[in-house]
């Protein structure tokens, strides 16, 4: 659940389309993460290095009225981004233990890309922007929106401020 939200972190760049990076070390999906960069077309990982706290963490199931905003319901979402692109995302819903997701952020051919430690061969791309100290990530993720214990195909809007 959190690893997919983290994909949201991959948000660091506005994603218009996904292009594969190429090299002799291509992973299962054709993406060689080692060929990617910490510099994107609109911002770089160095600009988002540090600690962030969400002011909004809205997840909804497209085509339905089912949605949850972890922050509005009293939970917390924090993100720590390291200079090398490593990240830690912690989502804590009210009354539950925090769920931690870790991985790496980079730009592959200019597109913000997230690679999770628990699924390194399955990178994710999201929309991301950095404007006026607000880091926003949006896009398709997996998250247990309906609370049944199973992740749902969801859409996230994650708005973060420096903490």
From TrEMBL:
| Keywords associated with the record | Signal
Q: Which domain of life is it from?
A: Bacteria
Q: Which residues form the signal peptide?
A: 1-22
Instruction: Output this protein's name.
Output: Lipocalin-like domain-containing protein
Organism per entry: Poritiphilus flavus
The opening ranks of the lineage are: Bacteria, Pseudomonadati, Bacteroidota, Flavobacteriia, Flavobacteriales
């Amino acid at each position: 659940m959190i690893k997919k939200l983290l994909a949201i972190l991959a948000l660091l760049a506005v994603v218009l389309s996904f292009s594969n990076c190429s090299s002799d070390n291509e992973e299962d999906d054709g993406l060689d993460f080692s060929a990617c960069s910490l510099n994107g077309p609109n911002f770089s990982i160095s600009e988002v290095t540090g600690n962030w706290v969400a002011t909004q963490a809205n997840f909804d199931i497209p085509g339905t009225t089912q949605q949850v905003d972890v922050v509005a319901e009293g939970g917390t979402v924090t993100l720590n981004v390291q200079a090398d692109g490593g990240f830690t995302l912690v989502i804590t819903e009210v009354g539950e233990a925090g769920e931690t997701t870790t991985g790496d952020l980079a730009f592959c051919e200019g597109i913000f890309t997230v690679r999770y430690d628990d699924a390194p061969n399955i990178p994710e791309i999201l929309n991301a922007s950095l404007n006026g100290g607000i880091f926003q990530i949006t896009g398709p993720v997996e998250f247990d929106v309906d609370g049944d214990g199973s992740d749902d195909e969801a859409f996230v809007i994650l708005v973060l401020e420096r903490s």
